[in-house]
Amino acid sequence: MEQIKAILSINIVQIIIAAIVLWISVAIINKSLTKFFLRTDFIEERKEKTIESLVRSLLKYTATICFILFVISKYVDNFESILAGAGIAGIVIGFGAQSLIKDILAGLFLIYEKQLHQGDFVTINNTFNGTVEEIGLRSLKVREWSGKLLTISNGEIKQIQNYNIDRMRVIERVVVRYQEDPKKVWDALEKACNLLNKQFGHCLKVDEENCLIEPFTIYGITSLNAGFHGYEYTITGLVDDKEYWNTAREARKIIAQVLFDEKIGLAEEQISVKHSQ
Q1: What is the pTM of this model?
Q2: pLDDT, tens only, 188-223
Q3: In whole angstroms, what is the distance from residue 45 CA to residue 40 CA?
Q4: Which of 232, 237, 234, 172 has its CA nearest to residue 203?
Q5: Which of 34, 81, 122, 175 is least enclosed, having the fewest CB within 10 Å?
C-alpha cells in the first residue's frame, strides 16, 4: 500500500492518470451525446449535428486547458495563489490572444444567430464554396466540391451565403435569337415547365396545407436586349433546399431538350468586321 502511495505521489504518474481520466471522460460525454441525438427527433437533424459539433469542440478545448493547468500546478509552487493574482498576466495574455478570442466569439455568434448548420452548402466571403463539415469554437471546416477540406478561422468570416435556409428558388435564364417568334418560344418554355412540374413535383416546396408554393413557371421576358444578343426569358421554381442542386441541373437539361425539339435557336455572340476600302 505504501508503495502504491509512493508511486501515485510521483508527478509524472499523476499527470498520466489525469490525461487518461480526461480522455475517458471526454469520450464518454461525446458518445452519450451521440446516443442522445440518435434517440430523439425533437430537433432538426442539421441542428443536432451543429450542436454536437460545437459541444465536442468545447469539450476538447476545456479538457486541454484543464490538463495544461494541472501539469503546471505540479511543477510550480503556490500555483493557486499565482493563478488568483494573475490579473496583470491575464491582461498581457489577453492582448496576445486577441485573435483567438475574436474567433471564439465569432463562432458563438454563428451558432446563436443560426447563420449556418452542419451539412449546409455555403459560400464564404464570396470566394469559397462547399459543405459545412464541422463548426468549432475557433474555426469552420468546409469540404469543397473538389474534395479539399478548407479550414477558416471564424474571425475571418465576413460574409456567408447559405444555400440551405428554408427556401431555394431555381432560376434559369434563356436568351433566344431576335429572329425567334416570342409566342413560339413562350409555348415551348411552358411545355418545359409542365415537364419539370411532372418530373420534379416531389422536389417542389409545399406550404402547411401541402399545396405547391411556387411550381415551375415562366416568370416572364426579363430583357428585350440581353447583352445585345436576344430576348431573355426566365423560368423559376421553389424547391426543397436538399433537392436544389439536382433539380437545377436536370431543369437545364429538360429546357435545352425542349428548345432543341422545337428548333428554337439560342442567341449567339456575333462580331462584325468592316473592311475599309
Answers
A1: 0.54
A2: 999 999 999 999 988 888 887 888 888 999 999 999
A3: 10
A4: 237
A5: 81
